[in-house]
From TrEMBL:
This is Trk system potassium uptake protein TrkA. It holds the Pfam family TrkA_C. InterPro entries: K_uptake_TrkA, NAD(P)-bd_dom_sf, RCK_C, RCK_C_sf, RCK_N, Trk_Ktr_HKT_K-transport. Signal peptide: none annotated. It comes from the Bacteria. SUPFAM superfamilies: NAD(P)-binding Rossmann-fold domains, TrkA C-terminal domain-like. Residues 143-227, 368-453 form the RCK C-terminal domain. The keyword Ion transport applies. Residues 1-123, 232-348 form the RCK N-terminal domain. PROSITE patterns: RCK_C, RCK_N.
Length: 458
């Protein structure tokens, strides 16, 4: 594909990196920041163009005349929308993806049409991370939670801990420990190295395990990996921006929520908008304020400001003062390793959460959803099997007869309203939604080829 990415910020850089590391992609990144472009070009096999992406001459120089996809992810909604408009009007770019942050625009979908503002797909990092955090709060022991099939099937990433019945046991013992419940271990990471999830593979304390199960069975499966924590009740949010305010509104009906905003005017606005949340004006790194608000009683502390350093400091302080669990947003990738060695429980990366949404619209074939995992090294994919036995390499065939790339696991099949956990003898039918886990995302091209429909394959 020929792809133009407008914006060399965290989201744009992550998208460019993901696409440039795959074969057969020609990527051009446009930004007004020449230094940021030089940094990218030193690390990736891409073209760069310095200029404003909403200007026709800049788009033309970037190759808009024969581009397949325009991904506009600058910091300005208006620039992104105008760039899509120009790309369609002047160059008839087939697919236009735009980052839209302002909810007022999102609330009027009629605006985004080729007859109005020609945006084919809207990406909202703030909405994505808000929904992602809300899912994490539902499952206190999870490190990652991803949904398939409208939430009927979940992919959970969690750490195996001492005291869990599966510690030291082979994977095939899951059936004995969970009679009547089906689950599929999709991947195991031990000291950051992928371990094949075979039936006789033993789980060790400290392993990071990804497994698939029906939503109704998730907690039972989690309970054999580690002793489960109690559900969350009390939540403190630092940051009154788009993410913090929206998350408080989403959670306040089920949890006791306190929100801290350093901006007095914004605190007053949120106090009027939120029904049950307690809104405070102050600094979330203020020890006295946290102690006054009983930080030691909080089940979760969430640092969601726009400043990485403030988030890290506030989360570490909250954890030291007694918060049960601490999470924070981190935009700079180099901070993630430092966080994981420290006291903060989960580092939330908006651009890694966003990139899966972008990739969903870029993958060849009938891809329903893509989730970028483990900082982009792995992917979970839901893809539809099309064709019949004469035109498809997968339809009508058992899973153990498929030529799957190394490190690929088929975990489940979504068939109509039914969820089937995959086994070696499961036969894939036409129109099945197949959920796969790839430990090496560089193999995605092989998956796309495997699920492509052709003539005379056999």
């Amino acid at each position: 594909m020929k792809v133009i990415v407008l914006g060399a910020g965290q989201v744009g850089s992550s998208v460019a990196t993901a696409l440039a590391t795959e074969t057969d992609n020609s990527v051009t990144v446009v930004d007004t920041d020449a230094e940021a472009l030089n940094w990218l070009q030193e690390r990736l096999d891409i073209r760069t163009v310095t200029g404003l992406g909403s200007q026709p001459s800049v788009l033309q120089e970037a190759g808009a005349a024969d581009a397949d996809i325009l991904i506009a992810v600058t910091q300005s909604d208006e620039t992104n929308m105008l760039a899509c408009q120009i790309a369609w009007t002047l160059f008839h770019t087939p697919t236009k993806i735009a980052r839209i942050r302002v909810t007022d625009y999102q609330d009027h979908p009629a605006l985004f049409d080729n007859a109005a503002i020609p945006v084919d797909f809207i990406i909202s990092p703030e909405r994505l991370i808000k929904d992602y955090i809300a899912r994490l709060i539902q499952y206190p022991d999870a490190l990652q939670v991803r949904e398939f099939g409208d939430g009927r099937l979940l992919l959970i990433g969690m750490e195996v801990d001492r005291g869990g019945p599966m510690v030291g046991e082979p994977i095939h013992r899951l059936r004995e420990l969970l009679p009547g419940i089906e689950a599929r271990v999709a991947a195991i990471y031990r000291h950051d190295t992928s371990v094949p999830p075979e039936g006789d593979t033993r789980l060790l304390a400290g392993d990071e395990v990804f497994f698939l199960a029906r939503k109704s069975d998730i907690r039972r499966v989690m309970s054999v990996m580690r002793p489960l924590d109690k559900p969350y009740k009390r939540i403190m949010i630092a940051g009154g921006g788009n993410i913090g305010g929206a998350l408080a509104g989403k959670l306040e009906g089920d949890y006791q929520v306190k929100l801290i905003s350093h901006n007095l005017r914004r605190a007053r606005e949120l106090s009027a908008e939120l029904d049950r949340s307690i809104v405070l004006s102050g600094n979330a790194s203020d020890t006295e304020l946290l102690e006054e608000e009983n930080i030691e009683d909080m089940d979760v502390f969430l640092a969601l400001t726009n400043d990485d350093e403030d988030n890290i400091l506030a989360a570490m302080l909250a954890k030291r003062l007694g918060a049960r669990r601490a999470m924070c947003i981190v935009n700079r990738t180099e901070y993630v390793d430092l966080i994981e060695m420290g006291s903060i429980d989960i580092a939330l990366s908006p651009h890694q959460i966003t990139i899966g949404e972008v990739l969903t619209h870029l993958r060849r074939g009938d891809v329903v959803s893509v989730y970028s995992l483990r900082r982009g090294a792995a992917e979970a994919i839901e893809i539809i099997a099309r064709g019949d036995e004469s035109t498809s390499r997968v339809v009508g065939r058992r899973i153990d007869a498929l030529n799957l790339p190394r490190g690929t696991t088929i975990g489940a099949i979504l068939r109509d309203d039914e969820v089937q956990i995959a086994h070696h003898d499961t036969v894939i039918r036409a129109d099945d939604h197949v959920v796969l886990f790839l430990t090496d995302k560089r193999r995605i091209g092989e998956i796309e080829q495997l699920f492509s429909v052709g003539f005379g394959f056999f």
